[in-house]
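Lab manual, section 2.4: Encoding a predicted structure.

Procedure: take the sequence of the chain (108 residues), apply the prediction step described in section 2.3, and record the output as structure tokens. A sample record is shown.
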Amino acid sequence: IGDIIHTFPDVNLTSVSFFAEGDWVISRDIFKGTFKNKATVPHHGGLVMTHEPTNKSFSVQHTHMFKIENNLITEHFANRDDVEMYQQLGVLPPAPAFQPPAPPSENK
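Recorded output:
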């Protein structure tokens, strides 16, 4: 966590919604920050260790699932959109625009 704060000093994780059933909790979150410093340990796929800071900001969705037993988190699963984050930060190129396929030609 310390290196995430170092890399993105204005980092913010805002919970948008929660769902709980039994000992499981699911949260949908918005993760935001600005790439100000080169990472020193691999996180979020590690690409922020290999690129110079771009001073660009990102805002992506995360989904986290936690299992809670005896008031402790005993399991954790996450889905993150790291590709979109890297595209917004200028570390990866943007996805190409979608071009629908041409309709099949009619052979008569």
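Check your result against the sample. The mean pLDDT is 92.
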